[in-house]
């Protein structure tokens, strides 16, 4: 059992294999946070909360206002509220019917149950009664009737605790939620850094480590999606924490829309982290009896540094976020025609590419943008999800059958959330587009947004996409979203509910995806938003892999995939080998290096095979064979970052089988040097008392070394032979 309740002190202690999380309902009914970190026993740690008379920190009236050592402004709390004495960043802000913005929550009960709670209409980690337990804690504001039920899911073996909440208006008048966060977490002591992942289109999830200082720091998105610019995953760690040592905490927001993660170091040197839906464009009306459910946050602690937290999240996402038959099935090696043809293709041209692909061992052909409506550029056609049979030279079914007759699976591209002004759908339903009445809308990529907050729009897209998927032998869908949302306004919502539009949009997206993935369980859905613009745990609940970035340059991808690896597993990262010179950077890298980098993801190709030499085709065939042979080790192995792309001459990473039976070490040189300094790395995840056969992939010869020698002495990476050289080193236990 991972959840313990000590009734006399009203202390809740959540235990995982290596961590402890504790809270306490004190004598005033305030739910105080007492501890989160390395595993300890069930001792009440509220003794660590320092009380004192703090100037300008008020005292609750319930205590007569005379105990000047008791103040919500300085106490660590589980779910802080705005307006009643805590001046720090808060989790909950409510506008009452009289216009006041005060709410004060007090403990009202709890329940413990087997299994993991679920959230209606929202993605969340899942677990059986043997895998997880749930604690729910009820809090209530007696004056307004607003009630909050906090949810805690405990995956004891995984070292994971999840957080979510339901907010109910139990009063007699309507209230408006102005901020409803999913997580409030306080650290009473310690000096911390936080690690965030910033970026832009085609350069996502750049690692950034900064100190948490006095004042407010935040990352977030008001773009309608989690965005290329900040990822809804952060780490908080000690000043001396490194890749494999020290205290580290990870937090992943299971949500694909607008979010805010805030950190504050307060007057008492305490640190607070808040995570939830971004409040800037959020105002949710709750009539009496109505409930609002906030999205989930995944939490993990490790004493083994950033790598320890990463490996926890990798297992959690692979096994308890991703769903369906593709969760653990081997994903097919694919080829996508986009960078090979862009909009310029016919059915015959696609079949010619597919013929070469089949000969090389590729298993899935994906037809990208341009197959529907009037769509020969990005100026028109979005929303008209009817195959352009004139362009294809056949029906979609006939094209799919020609592809599958070659022994390949057949996949297709959609961008359902967007619409072109030059489209039949827009001409029929201009009110379905997101736009502010009386204002000219902002265009991006020559397109507008479809209002997914509307059920009629959701129903239309479900029907239209279902018809397409049912009309041909389609087993893969690339689900794209190529712009940010602005001009937020829904013609289906009244004026006083426009603040609900952005969240309702995400709920609508989730409803469409849930319906389609249930209706077509055999289809592998891959998420995409101009590459990695919506790379989050929420999307991975519906699409078990996401196109990592539109930047396919192998050297750029080192940094992108490095940053992504902190919170997401290899099996989630869409990564392809593309043509050179690279379409984004103009860089020329060896085919072997492009393959090495793409194998640190779902693996595929994005080029015109008809333009390759026979030698290059032979190399691709070897790459595919290697990937298939090492698939389990790559996709399900424990991931170790051995040398960073942010410094030094070489990036090195390792995936090791959980049973230590084999490992793959991959190394890519950033540039070639004269008289180079040797590169050494110490491996991880091996058995110290075992011997390993060490082989360069694709080369003859081997070396026998012990696990102890490899982990403590290290491994020498062969020197670079030309620009952007790469090596793959396979180790097998003897």
TrEMBL record:
PROSITE patterns: ALPHA_GALACTOSIDASE. SUPFAM superfamilies: (Trans)glycosidases (SSF51445). It catalyses: Hydrolysis of terminal, non-reducing alpha-D-galactose residues in alpha-D-galactosides, including galactose oligosaccharides, galactomannans and galactolipids. The active site is at residues 480, 550. InterPro entries: Aldolase_TIM, Alpga-gal_N_sf, Alpha-glycosidase_related, GH, Glyco_hydro_27/36_CS, Glyco_hydro_36, Glyco_hydro_36_C, Glyco_hydro_36_N. One of its GO terms (molecular function) is alpha-galactosidase activity. Keywords: Glycosidase, Hydrolase. The keyword Hydrolase applies. It is an enzyme of class 3 (hydrolase). Its EC number is 3.2.1.22. One of its GO terms (biological process) is carbohydrate catabolic process. Residues 30-287 form the Glycosyl hydrolase family 36 N-terminal domain. Residues 651-731 form the Glycosyl hydrolase family 36 C-terminal domain. Belongs to the glycosyl hydrolase. This is Alpha-galactosidase.
């Amino acid at each position: 059992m991972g959840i313990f309740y000590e009734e006399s002190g009203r202390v809740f202690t959540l235990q995982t294999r290596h961590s402890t999380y504790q809270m306490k309902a004190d004598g005033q009914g305030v739910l105080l946070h007492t501890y989160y970190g390395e595993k300890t026993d069930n001792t009440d740690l509220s003794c660590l909360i320092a009380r004192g008379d703090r100037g300008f920190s008020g005292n609750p009236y319930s205590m007569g206002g005379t105990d000047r050592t008791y103040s919500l402004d300085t106490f660590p709390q589980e779910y802080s509220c705005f307006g009643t004495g805590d001046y720090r960043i808060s989790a909950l802000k409510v506008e009452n019917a009289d216009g006041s913005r005060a709410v004060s929550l007090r403990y009202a009960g709890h329940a413990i149950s087997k299994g993991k709670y679920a959230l209606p209409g929202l993605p969340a980690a899942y677990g059986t009664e043997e895998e997880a337990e749930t604690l729910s804690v009820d809090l209530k504001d007696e004056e307004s009737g607003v009630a909050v039920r906090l949810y805690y899911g405990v995956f004891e073996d995984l070292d994971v605790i999840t957080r979510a909440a339901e907010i109910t208006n139990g009063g007699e008048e309507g209230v408006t939620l102005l901020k409803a966060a999913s997580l409030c977490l306080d650290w009473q002591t310690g000096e911390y850094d936080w690690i965030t992942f910033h970026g832009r289109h085609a350069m996502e999830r750049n690692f950034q480590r900064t100190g948490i200082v006095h004042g407010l720091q935040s990352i977030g998105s008001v773009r309608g999606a989690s965005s290329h610019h900040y990822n809804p995953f952060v780490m908080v760690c000690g000043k001396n924490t490194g890749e494999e040592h020290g205290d580290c905490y990870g937090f992943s927001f299971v949500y694909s829309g607008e979010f805010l993660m805030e950190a504050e170091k307060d007057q008492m040197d305490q640190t607070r982290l808040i995570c939830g839906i971004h409040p800037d464009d959020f105002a949710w009306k709750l009539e009496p009896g109505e409930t609002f459910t906030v999205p989930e946050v995944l939490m993990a602690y490790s004493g083994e540094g950033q790598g320890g937290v990463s490996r926890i999240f990798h297992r959690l996402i692979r096994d308890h976020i991703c769903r369906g038959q593709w969760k653990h099935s081997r994903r097919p090696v694919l080829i996508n025609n986009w960078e090979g043809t862009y909009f310029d293709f016919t059915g015959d041209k696609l079949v010619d590419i597919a013929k070469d692909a089949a000969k090389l061992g590729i298993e899935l052909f994906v037809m990208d943008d341009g197959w529907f409506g009037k769509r020969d550029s990005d100026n028109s056609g979005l929303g008209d999800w009817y195959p352009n049979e004139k362009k294809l030279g056949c029906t979609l079914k006939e094209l799919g059958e020609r592809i599958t007759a070659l022994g390949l699976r057949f996949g297709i591209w959609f961008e359902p959330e967007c619409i072109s002004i030059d489209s039949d759908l827009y001409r029929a339903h201009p009110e379905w587009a997101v736009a502010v009445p009386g204002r000219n809308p902002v265009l991006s990529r020559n397109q507008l947004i479809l209002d997914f907050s509307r059920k009629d729009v959701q129903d239309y897209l479900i029907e239209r996409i279902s018809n397409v998927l049912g009309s041909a032998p389609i087993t893969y869908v690339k689900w794209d979203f190529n712009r940010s949302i602005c001009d937020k306004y829904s013609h289906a919502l009244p004026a006083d509910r426009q603040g609900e539009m952005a969240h309702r949009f995400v709920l609508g997206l989730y409803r469409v995806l849930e319906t389609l993935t249930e209706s077509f369980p055999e289809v592998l859905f891959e998420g995409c938003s101009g590459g990695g613009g919506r790379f989050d745990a929420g999307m991975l609940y519906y699409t078990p892999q996401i196109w990592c970035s539109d930047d396919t340059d192998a050297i750029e991808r080192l940094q992108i995939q490095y940053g992504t690896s902190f919170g997401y597993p290899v099996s989630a990262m869409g990564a392809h080998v593309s043509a050179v010179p690279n379409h984004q950077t103009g860089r020329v890298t060896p085919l072997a290096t492009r393959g090495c980098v793409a194998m640190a993801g779902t693996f595929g190709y994005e080029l015109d095979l008809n333009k390759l030499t026979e030698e290059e085709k032979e190399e691709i065939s070897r790459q595919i064979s290697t990937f298939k042979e090492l698939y389990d080790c790559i996709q399900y192995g424990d991931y170790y970052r051995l040398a960073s792309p942010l410094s030094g001459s070489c990036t090195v990473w390792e995936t090791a089988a959980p049973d230590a039976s084999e490992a793959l070490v991959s190394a890519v040189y950033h540039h070639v040097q004269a008289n180079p300094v040797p590169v050494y790395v110490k491996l991880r995840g091996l058995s110290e008392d075992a011997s390993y056969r060490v082989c360069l992939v694709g080369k003859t010869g081997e070396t026998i070394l012990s696990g102890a020698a490899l982990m403590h002495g290290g491994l020498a990476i062969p020197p670079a032979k030309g620009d952007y050289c790469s090596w793959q080193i396979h180790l097998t236990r003897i």
